[in-house]
Amino acid sequence: MPNIEDYEAMTKISLSEDEKTIVSGYMNMLLDSFKKLEDTDVSGVVPLISVLDVKSPMRDDVAIKTISREELLSNAPEQHDAYFQVPRTVD
Questions:
Q1: What is the C-alpha separation between 23 and 33, in angstroms, rounded?
Q2: Would 44 be classed as within a structural domain?
Q3: What pLDDT, on a 0 to 100 scale, did the predictor assign at position 53?
């Protein structure tokens, strides 16, 4: 199980010793909550999708072509190999 220093490295933050103590307490509380969930017997429980007893009408899932790639890219300021080209956002 990762310790506070592992989490500190993963998130690339530096914590003071007081902050590490506080965060460790929250981490332990969270891990204890997950442990209680793991120990809960849910066999025979039907998953709840919605609290409302409403049936949504379904339609056939039919693929249709609505616009060509050329039409879609016709307004693109920049494109490369039939794809939108955007400025790099991550180094």
A1: 15
A2: no
A3: 81
SS3 1: coil
Using only C-alpha atoms, the chain has a radius of gyration, in whole angstroms, of: 25
Residue 35 lies in a domain: yes
Q: Is residue 66 part of a domain?
A: no
How far apart, in Å, are the Cα atoms of 38 and each of 31, 32, 34, 45? 10, 10, 6, 15
Q: What is the pLDDT of residue 89?
A: 86
Q: What is the mean pLDDT of residues 62-90?
A: 87
Task: Give bridge partners of residue 79 from the DSSP assignment.
Answer: 84
Q: Contact 71/62 with Cβ under 8 angstroms?
A: no
**Can you give the residue range of the structural domain that contains 18?**
4-39
How many whole angstroms separate alpha carbon 32 and alpha carbon 39?
Answer: 11
User: Rounded to an integer, what distance in angstroms lies between the CA atom of residue 66 and that of residue 46?
Assistant: 39
Q: Contact 15/4 with Cβ under 8 angstroms? A: yes
Sign of CA dihedral 65, 69, 73, 75: negative
